[in-house]
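User: My instructor asked us to take a sequence, write out its structure as tokens, and then describe one feature of it. I'm not sure where to start. Here is the sequence I was given:
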Amino acid sequence: MAYYVYILECKDKTLYTGSTNDLQKRVFTHNNSKTGAKYTKARRPVVLKYSEKFRTKSKAMKRECTIKNLTRKEKLKLIKL
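Assistant: Let's start with the prediction itself. The structure tokens for your sequence are:
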């Protein structure tokens, strides 16, 4: 099973970072579900801007933590790579 870390851009141009084992389903949930992340629910629609694939959940979670600690400027630089 693969795991993904992703960055979404919200309607208000803010960025949201998360992780999942089903990227397409998770982006759909962020945009459509009543049970999605509270942050993105109020900022729909969201657009997938970046993702990385990992073999283990542990590695994905570590990378998610690293990305969440980046500044907005650093995240935007990562997205543009």
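For the description part of your assignment, you could build on this observation: The CA atoms of residues 5 and 52 lie 5 Å apart. Try explaining in your own words what that tells you about the chain.
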